[in-house]
Design a protein that fits this description.
Elements (H helix, E strand, L loop, with lengths): L1 E5 L5 H13 L3 E4 L12 H16 L4 E7 L3 H7 L7 E3 L3 H9 L5 E5 L5 H13 L6 H16 L10
Parallel strand pairs: 1-2, 1-3, 3-5, 4-5
Helix pairs in contact: 2-3, 4-5
Length: 162
């Protein structure tokens, strides 16, 4: 699987570990930056580039997921979710990693590098990558509603306020 990653200065050390770990597991890792430590760098472009690459790959039939991380993971998740077609979930436990895939078919996860040990975060990532989407009807329906809103600004029959 192709894994797109991005971070900011807070996650740079973790990025190096993650790239080695995922490559050793047989994944193709694409690093969207940064490549060097800058304590005042800005994460949005890094995360948007990683998220956009996931969507491009998936649309081309390439099996791909994304991982974005920073101090808390919050801003990185927000940045990734600005890309049309991305469903980025903030992961803080094994359970949220699994549910992101099972229920939301998340294609990107965000993790707070300052919130977890490297071992914990690596475990979350491994669980996320290994877990398939459940394809349960209710989850498929909800994801379709999100995609409809993203494309049209409305969800037919659901009384979305304008």
């Amino acid at each position: 699987m192709r894994i797109h990653i991005a971070t900011d200065h807070a996650g740079l050390d973790f990025s190096t570990h993650l790239q080695e770990h995922l490559s050793a597991a047989g994944h193709e890792v694409v690093d969207h930056g940064p490549t060097e430590y800058d304590p005042i760098d800005d994460y949005p472009a890094f995360c948007i580039n990683a998220a956009a690459a996931v969507v491009r790959d998936q649309q081309a039939g390439v099996e791909a997921l994304g991982i974005v991380f920073g101090g808390s993971g919050n801003g990185e998740q927000i940045a990734a979710n600005k890309v049309r077609g991305v469903r980025a979930a903030l992961v803080w436990s094994q359970s949220t990693a699994l549910l992101a895939r099972q229920h939301n078919d998340a294609n990107v996860i965000a993790i707070g590098a300052r919130q977890h040990t490297v071992e914990e975060a690596t475990g979350f990532i491994d669980a996320f990558i290994a877990e398939p989407f459940s394809f349960e009807e209710r989850h498929v329906r909800r994801i379709a509603q999100l995609a409809e809103y993203e494309a049209t600004g409305d969800i037919a029959g659901k009384n979305v306020d304008h």
